[in-house]
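Work Package 4 report. The design task specified in the project plan requires that, given a folded chain encoded as structure tokens, an amino acid be chosen for each position. We show below one input record used in the internal validation round.
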């Protein structure tokens, strides 16, 4: 099987692979640029960065690549609008938005010639997105790492959603090798979004302890947690998760960050994600997809993409 281009509005990526945005500086400029340089689409995660940091990160990525670069911003965060504004000012190619739904984003996209790609997990939201002017949608199944909007497997969702809309549908969740890409494309998807595979890249800037947890993962190592965002989140078991289960985690009522529009205050999600990124497994929340145990090497992005393309072409 040969992989085709991925067209999202006016953008054409040579390969139908998007590197998913990963919050709190898991996907930053070096990773997104390396992916874009291979003819795929690289996403910088804006969530967990301040507006100035995001601006710098976009500029850095542009210096490293003239490929297709986007941002992923969670609708649930307080700074959503400010971060979108910065991305627009910096002339980003596309905005991918999950963990909530923003109607205003489509107007901003139309007015500024930026492709808007919401992340959805239902036929209803897929249809609404198309009607509002989405250039494509990412359909994320329950296998995905990070916040989840469904308990349904990707394949079940795809079967219904590709029938329901005409815009390109991009499958995400549990895609780690060429065989997975082929299956999703055979179900009618125009492309895939992958997160976990790109964490285990040389360009991903997280601490080695974060990557080590990925490398050591077994088939039953991921768990679902109740995120303060109000959604379940898929993460790897570690000391932090044990503390969370035994309710030993700080549940302060006072908070100066106000990083989420609505927060359950069970624990501070941004602090937990930041600690993980820095390698502190006692206090760190490590998001990862359900198939992380099938990944066992840290590779340069170039090699990751080459392997995927070779695996697909052997099918
Ligand atoms: C560490 C990590 C952080 C993530 N952060 C975000 C995020 O900020 N926003 C978002 O929409 N998705 C986020 N995701 C989901 C990814 O963009 C992607 O859709 C998902 O990882 C796909 O599943 P996979 O890991 O099985 O490939 C995150 C995933 C991981 C593993």
């Amino acid at each position: 099987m040969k992989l085709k281009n991925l067209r999202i509005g006016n953008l054409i990526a040579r390969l139908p692979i998007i590197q998913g945005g990963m919050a709190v500086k898991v996907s930053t400029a070096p990773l997104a640029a390396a992916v874009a340089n291979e003819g795929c689409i690289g996403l910088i995660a804006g969530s967990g960065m301040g507006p100035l940091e995001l601006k710098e990160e976009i500029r850095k990525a542009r210096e490293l690549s003239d490929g297709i670069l986007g941002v992923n911003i969670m609708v649930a965060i307080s700074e959503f609008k400010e971060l979108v504004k910065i991305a627009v000012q910096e002339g980003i190619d596309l905005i991918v938005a999950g963990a909530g739904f923003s109607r205003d984003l489509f107007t901003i996209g139309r007015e500024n010639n930026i492709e808007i790609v919401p992340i959805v997990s239902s036929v209803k939201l897929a249809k609404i997105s198309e009607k509002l002017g989405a250039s494509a949608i990412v359909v994320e199944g329950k296998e995905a790492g990070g916040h989840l909007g469904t308990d349904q497997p990707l394949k079940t969702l795809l079967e219904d959603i590709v029938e329901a809309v005409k815009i390109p549908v991009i499958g995400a969740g549990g895609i780690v090798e060429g065989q997975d890409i082929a299956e999703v494309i055979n179900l009618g998807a125009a492309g895939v979004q992958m997160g976990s595979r790109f964490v285990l890249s040389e360009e991903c800037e997280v601490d080695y302890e974060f990557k080590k947890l990925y490398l050591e993962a077994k088939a039953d190592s991921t768990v679902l947690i109740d995120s303060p965002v109000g959604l379940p989140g898929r993460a790897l078991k570690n000391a932090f998760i044990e503390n969370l289960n035994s309710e030993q985690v700080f549940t302060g009522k006072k908070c100066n960050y106000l990083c989420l529009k609505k927060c359950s205050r069970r624990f501070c999600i941004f602090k937990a994600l930041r600690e993980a990124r820095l390698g502190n497994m006692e206090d760190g929340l490590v998001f990862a997809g359900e198939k992380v145990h099938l990944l066992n090497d840290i590779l340069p992005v170039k090699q990751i993409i080459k392997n995927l393309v070779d695996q697909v072409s052997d099918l």
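The chain has two domains: 6-205+295-313, 208-292. Validation will be extended to a larger panel in the next phase.
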